[in-house]
Design brief:
Radius of gyration: 17 Å
Helix content: 40-55%
Order of helices and strands: EEHEHEHHHEHHHHH
Shape: globular
Strand content: 5-15%
Oligomer: single chain
Distance between the termini: 17 Å
CATH class: Alpha Beta
CATH topology: Protein-Tyrosine Phosphatase, Chain A
Number of helices: 10
Largest sheet: 5 strands, mixed
Length: 226
């Protein structure tokens, strides 16, 4: 998506989108998202991640007031099992199944937020790759996307944030730009893990088992179909 300032912003399905941290958007970028129908932002980050950086653009309060921001973190970073399995953070689809097993109610809460959202929805985490990728893959699965489309969505996001690392003036504490000869084999392994997760999570059953009502599921499907 060509929203000014947005990093790793992509269409998922219907009126649902994904991206990296929202603080990267400029005032013009927010207006472009609004003009495209976005009215709800679902932030998957933990509370201590949500902050403006000195390098982030200034955005008018009246611009931001046009959006509903819903905080729906997909994890509790203080959980000891999660910390042991996802080091230093959720950065690989191989850990998605553990995330879903440990925090099923948190993932369900994201889908409840999508169901209740006004207008178009953009879901974001920090990089727009893994927490967003986990939810995006489940949404694509619900929408009936095939495995090639689901894999393509993750590949776009992984390449998108990798390209950002190449030009970013703010070094990431754990990641750096990866040249193609390093990125390609890593991507191949991660795509295998992603598709294994989608096959086993059985998104519709997972959501129903974790408190998503038929009415909420219908609302999510409607968002994905628009």
């Amino acid at each position: 998506m060509q929203w000014d300032g947005a990093v790793n912003a992509w269409h998922i399905a219907g009126s649902v989108f994904r991206m990296g941290r929202r603080e990267w958007l400029t005032d013009a970028g927010w207006q472009q998202a609004y003009d495209g129908g976005i009215r709800t932002v679902i932030d998957l980050r933990n509370p201590d991640e949500i902050r403006r950086r000195d390098t982030d653009p200034r955005v008018r309060s009246e611009t931001l007031a046009a959006f509903d921001v819903v905080h729906a973190p997909t994890e509790d970073p203080g959980n000891s099992e999660f910390r042991e399995l996802c080091v230093p953070y959720l950065n690989d689809p191989a850990s998605y199944a553990d995330n879903a097993r440990i925090f099923p109610e948190k993932l369900a809460a994201v889908f409840k937020a999508v169901a209740a959202a006004a207008g178009g929805v953009v879901i974001h985490c920090s990089a727009g790759r893994d927490r967003s990728g986990m939810i995006a893959a489940m949404l694509q699965d619900l929408a009936g996307a095939d495995e090639d489309a689901i894999a393509a969505g993750y590949e776009r996001a992984m390449r998108g944030i990798n390209d950002h690392h190449r030009v970013s003036g703010v070094p990431h504490p754990h990641e750096r730009y990866l040249p193609e000869e390093v990125l390609a084999p890593l991507l191949e392994t991660r795509l295998e893990s992603l598709l294994r997760f989608v096959r086993h999570v059985k998104t519709r059953e997972f959501l129903r088992h974790n408190g998503i009502t038929d009415r909420e599921l219908t609302a999510v499907l409607a968002k994905l179909a628009r």
